[in-house]
Structures are given as structure tokens and as C-alpha cells.
Amino acid sequence: MKELVFVGLGLHDERGISLQGLEETKTADYAFIELYTSILPHFSIKRFESIVNKQVRVISRRDIEEENGAKILGAAEKGKTVFLIPGDPFIATTHIALRIEAEKRGIKTRLVHGASVMSAIIGLSGLHNYKFGKTVTIPFPDNFSETPYNVITQNKKRGLHTLCLLDIKADEKCFLSISEALSLLLKIEKKRRKGTTTLNTVAVCVARAGSPTPVLKAGFVKDLVDCDFGDPPQSLIFPGQLHFMEVEALVAFAGAPEGLRRLDK
After folding, report:
1. What is the average per-residue pLDDT within 155-177?
2. CATH of region 117-263, choose from 3.30.950.10, 3.30.830.10, 3.40.50.1980, 3.40.50.720
3. Which residues, in sequence order, are CB contacts of 113 under 8 Å at separation 6+?
């Protein structure tokens, strides 16, 4: 049977996969995995293969972007194939084209969700999900862009929070840190002067969401910009208009300063 199943791996290690995802992998004829779109800090291919009792082939960015997923599609035309993806497939990755091509070839496709960094970060922060505006990625300096600053500005005008994902190159083991991201935004602020990301702006820093020991710290940019939040993945939230319960959550969970209470509504 021609079939391609996209399976989410979750956020931290090989135990993050769902029971359904585990069963789909165990019963597959072929299994592939990519580890370049996100960082799973403690994931081990060897341990995962021992769990599913199956060889899992690692797919590179080139296999997907330059060869259009030919290896995966070729396998799926011969039998049930599982493609394992960090997080929740299609939330923050770009494999839609592969699924479309599979359907065009008459290959049945299915999706098994995994924990998403998007919901994990928001849930960890204690902020209200429905009050988030557009999400943006802050790129490395060599791909400099003012788009993140513009998105934060637009969301704040509407009273909405902004989730900022920080750029990574997982295959090169390179990631943008919270400190670097804040420094880049401060440089844009110095040029644009809209009061969007100043030293007195409130920010929420999140590191390793989904792990047993995540880090959550809220405060003013001036107190956060020089902090070392350790290993990736790392993210930032710039709050918009805060509900008093959101402020209570940031004080209780993220060590936010008591002065934040004057900003609630």
C-alpha cells in the first residue's frame, strides 16, 4: 500500500513521540527522519532505533529542498513509509510541498501530531493563547532583517503578544541566543525610535521548552540582554497589553519584577 505518514517527534528526546506515532513507526516498511529544522537537545538515533526495532534513515536538507524528497517518495510508492519530524509536523517546518507531491502521485498521506514548541512556549509562560498576534523568526545577523521589529510593533499597537522564534542551523549546530536577539532589536530601535524594543521594554525569555528543566525569565530588556540562558532552543515573547492574571503568572512562574504589576489591565 502506498502511504506516507508524517509523525511529530515532540520537543526534547526520543520519548517525546506519541504512542500513536510510535506504533506507526514500528509498523512501517520504511522510516526516515530529519533533524535539521529544529533542535531536539537529547535525541538519540541509536536509542530511538532500539525502541522501534527498525533502522531509521536520516534525511538532509538537500534531500528535501534540492532533490524534492525523492528518497522518501520512492519508498512510499513501495510501502508504508514514516517521515519523522521534530515538534509537530507542518507547524514550524516546510514539508508541505512533499505532502502535496505525494498526493499527486497517488500516495495516501496521514499526519500524527507531536508536541509543538508554539503551544509549549505559550503554555509555559502563563500568557493567554488568544492574545498572541503574528509569530516571527529573528534571523542571524548575516541575514539581517527589520521584519521582527515591524511585527512586534504592529502586534503591540493591537495590544497583542509576539512570540519570536530564534533562528537556528541545526545541521551546523548553530543557534541565535536570546542575548544576541535582544541586541539586534536594540540596534533597530536605535535607528527606528518607535519605542518598540527599548531597554525598558518587558520581555519573556524561554529556553528549552519541553525539556525536564526549561528556563523561563521575565523582566526588562536591560536586565536580560546580558544573561546567558544556556543551550538551545531559545525563544522570546514581547507582551502586549497584559491581563492582571498574566502578570500574576509572570511574577509566579518567570520571576518577573513586582513593578510589572503596574502594567496590567
Report:
1. 91
2. 3.30.950.10
3. 8, 18, 88, 89
